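Quick log. Single chain, no ligands specified.
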Amino acid sequence: MDSTTQYMLALLRASLNETTPNLPTIDTGEWERIYWLARKHGVVTMVNDAIEKLPSEQQPQGDIALSWTLSAERTRYHYAHQTEVLQAIDQKARAENLPYILLKGMTLAKLYPRPDSRPCGDIDICFPHNFERGNALLGDSNPHLDGKHAEIAIDGVPVENHKQLLDLNFKSQKKAEAYIWNTLSTPSDNHTLCPMANMVYLLMHTVCHLTAKYKLALRNVLDWGLFLRANQETLNPDECHSVMKQIGMDNAFNMLTYLSAEFIGSDLSAFINGNLPQRDIDRMRELILSKQYFEAVPQNLPLFQYLLTRFKRNSQRRWLYRYLPASPSERLRNIIFNFSKRNTQ
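-> predicted structure:
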């Protein structure tokens, strides 16, 4: 791991634990590299929170200092605007006596020392068993549908109203979806999933990023670690692993927990059950921090080259499949389906 990444992670841990970072004097060139790496990972404002605790002589100077400040102000402005939109939604929902559940970003931001330091791209919401009424409340009775949710813009803020919570391409995702919906029979006073259901949802949502494009954002891993840290007294590790085994995602649970504990600087060992291959840990860490993701196989290759490239990519990803929701038979079925689809285009 290079010095730039080490410095960024040290600043990030200090920010998330509200401590003063212990760093040597860093020159302007290195501060610029840290800035662009933090921006690449979407954690500029969190890192800036730690920089502000450094002695003035150790902080970045000149134009790069201005870049840190402006990026942080932009993140906080967007968060404040999204909060205003969410408050308006809440007032309407209360007036119509329509229960709702908030998902992902806006709820996870509350786990950070400064909620407005976590960028939130949109507002994810679910009106259990009232999808159409939810669309009408949000201001669009016939919105654009994108897979599992409707997309509605409110005062410039994208709002995703979820009809289903997860992609349902594999058995594990369907089992997780059913588990979560079984917990929604009683409306929540604080508009969040109960801790166990939220644990299942967050893990499956995070792993879906790996499943769809073989990419996993650092911020998603931080969210997972902060969620477990905030719910250590509520969640029973044995129950978590029991549910994850039923769904088929116990390996992913262990891997995400191990790396998130490392990144946020907290002890989450009580949640880890069993040993992970060190090589897999190193490869997953590299995948997250380098953002050098696996590329999709081009669809326009000649048949033999397409099959050969697909075989090589699958061999490269073989270790990763231990942490994805698809079973071997489901992966094979998808390869055949994608090949058939390719031939009909």
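The first strand starts at residue 101 and ends at 103.
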